[in-house]
Recover the amino acids of this structure.
């Protein structure tokens, strides 16, 4: 196996580990939030459209957050504020037993 194959294998393993962590974390969060850059799990979401002279952008405030990002050392954070000029998708996750 050459170095590139080893790197590809390592990246695939890291992706699977991140996905497994996401699947486990999704059980304790209420919302899935997706922006152009990344995805989040959160227990509180507030989306505020803000008008400006050049159009509309969104201020998204998240509380009790897990960030879907492999390079992050700490994916659990208390608060996140996102400013986006693109679409922001918010989905309420089905609670266990619903």
């Amino acid at each position: 196996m050459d170095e590139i194959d080893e790197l590809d294998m390592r990246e695939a393993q890291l992706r699977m580990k991140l996905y497994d962590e996401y699947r486990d974390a999704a059980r304790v969060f209420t919302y899935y939030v997706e922006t152009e850059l990344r995805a989040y799990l959160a227990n509180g979401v507030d989306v505020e459209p803000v008008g400006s002279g050049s159009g509309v952008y969104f201020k998204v405030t998240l509380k009790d957050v897990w960030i879907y990002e492999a390079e992050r050392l700490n994916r659990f954070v208390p608060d996140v504020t996102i400013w986006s000029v693109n679409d922001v998708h918010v989905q309420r996750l089905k609670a266990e037993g619903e």
